Amino acid sequence: MAGDDDAYRSYLLRLWREDRDGETAWRASLESAETPERIYFASLDELVSYLREQTAGSPGKVTKSS
Fold this sequence. Notes:
Elements: E1 11-20, E2 23-32, E3 38-41, H1 44-54
Antiparallel strand pairs: 1-2, 2-3
């Protein structure tokens, strides 16, 4: 993992609800801890899709052995 820039991601996640025309939707933003970049998402599905793209090719879930 040392020296592997793709092995770690850090974000500040913000979630909020917006009411428009009687509909309530969750919105989100991610702010990179390494850069001033902030990305906004119109839905939680968009957020999850983005995170999946960012981690594509990453090893699967780490499990604890007994």
